[in-house]
UniProtKB/TrEMBL annotation:
This is RsmB/NOP family class I SAM-dependent RNA methyltransferase. S-adenosyl-L-methionine binds at residues 236, 263, 284. Signal peptide: none annotated. One of its GO terms (molecular function) is RNA binding.
């Protein structure tokens, strides 16, 4: 592909990504993969170059641009080579006309910038869109961090989690023998700290309420040394996600994890037998994902105040419902990969106000104190953005 043809491909993709953002369609990565599936003439260098253009344009535009072309013209403002590809050549973008819309540069839609700046300060906002490193979690059930580092000469030990290994450059981790043998999982170092905040121990009963495909469940299993005399119960309302957990657990050597599919709004129907019996319950709650823009920068084009309010209502409901599972003196660990106070600090404070006698305990050693929990941010902690609170039921 010529540079101009690559630019036109990026414009077409950006149009698709914008339409998906408006209509709650597929993620950018999925759309890019689909696009190239039907364009076999594009070689690996073309794909990489188009992807760079697409993500560069997405990262640069805080507000959703009016079109893919406006997004790429915005990126071209600081890139003369890209600007010169708007030359009207065949397969390339038509030449620029006077007064054409150009997407303004920005971090996020204005309402989100204001809300995030209130939580973390304006200085930290640009790092929300940095390129994320690739973090791995060493599976203690199968290997030590020293063994994994010996297999990955370009990796370094993570600074915050004892199991973290960080790669500066993305590599095809899933093709590595140490992956197929279950020594490692792909997991952001901040996510590893959420699992650690649960403080799960052998012999305990631990519930992972929103386990998804089990990223944190497997970290909990490694802490508990499964199989043990304890119980680890992974739940989710999404059958597909939850069905991906058993094969991962098998690879990780984490036998004995129970899975339970929950009916949203009727979660306790499947959990009643555990009432008052859990040493710890982790709610890795569904959230707006404002802390993960390093990986999904177009997610900020999808958010609306109404969406945040909806997800916040679900978070509060889940906390109230499953508090009943926690035994006296046990812990409810609440976490979101969002930096909005409406989903983090304010949720923990409102829960404590609604549940007299419960108290907040230290949730992690990393990050900064924020209300009744802790906040991890890309700028200060070099992790995705998270809020974590550890709430203790009265004895
Ligand atoms: C942040 S994700 C969890 C990620 C997962 N813990 C991990 O480490 O990979 C939130 C999860 O909450 C689930 N969820 C949403 N509503 C739920 C509900 N009412 N009960 C249980 N899970 C729910 C979603 O399906 C999603 O998998």
């Amino acid at each position: 592909m010529t540079p101009a043809a690559r630019a036109q491909a990026a414009i077409d993709l950006l149009d698709e990504i914008l339409a998906a953002a408006r209509g709650n369609g597929a993620a950018a990565d999925t759309l890019i993969a689909r696009y190239f599936k039907t364009r076999r003439y594009a070689g690996s260098k073309d794909r990489r170059a188009v992807r760079e253009l697409v993500y560069g344009a997405i990262r640069r535009a805080g507000e959703p641009p009016v079109s893919g072309r406006a997004a790429l013209l915005g990126l071209a403002q600081a890139d003369t080579v890209l600007a010169s590809s708007f030359d009207g050549s065949s397969h390339g973008p038509v030449a620029v006309t006077a007064g054409e819309p150009v997407a303004p540069a920005g971090i996020a839609p204005a309402w989100l910038e204001t809300a995030l700046a209130a939580a973390i300060g304006r200085d930290e906002l640009p790092a929300l869109l940095d390129r994320a490193p690739l973090d791995l979690r060493v599976n203690r059930l199968k290997a030590t961090r020293a063994q994994v580092l010996a297999e990955l000469p370009d990796a370094e030990a993570g600074a915050l989690s004892p199991d973290a290994v960080r790669l500066r450059e993305g590599i095809a981790v899933e093709a590595l023998p140490i992956f197929t043998q279950g020594w490692i999982e792909i997991q952001d170092e901040g996510s590893q700290l959420i699992a650690a905040a649960v403080g799960a121990k052998p012999g305990q009963t631990v519930v992972d309420l929103c386990a998804g495909a089990g990223g944190k469940t497997l970290a909990l299993a490694a802490e508990m040394g499964v199989p043990t005399t304890g119980r680890l119960i992974a739940c989710d309302s999404d059958r597909n996600r939850l069905s991906r957990l058993p094969p991962r657990a098998e690879r990780a050597g984490a036998a004995g994890i129970e899975t339970r599919l929950l009916d949203p709004g009727r979660e306790m129907a499947a959990l009643a037998d555990l009432a008052g019996r859990a040493d710890a319950v982790l709610i890795d709650a569904p959230c707006s994902g404002t802390g993960t823009w390093r990986r999904n920068p177009e997610a900020r084009w999808r958010l609306t105040p109404e969406r945040v309010a909806r997800v916040a209502a679900t978070q509060a409901r889940l906390m109230d419902v499953v508090a009943a599972l926690v035994r006296p003196g046990g812990a409810l660990v609440y976490a979101v990969c969002s930096l909005l106070d409406a989903e983090g600090r304010d949720q923990a404070a409102a829960f404590l106000a609604r549940h007299p006698g419960w108290r907040a305990a230290p949730a992690a050693t990393a990050g900064r104190a924020h209300g009744d929990g802790r906040l991890l941010t890309p700028a200060r902690d070099r992790t995705d953005g998270f809020f974590i609170a550890r709430l203790i039921r009265p004895c």
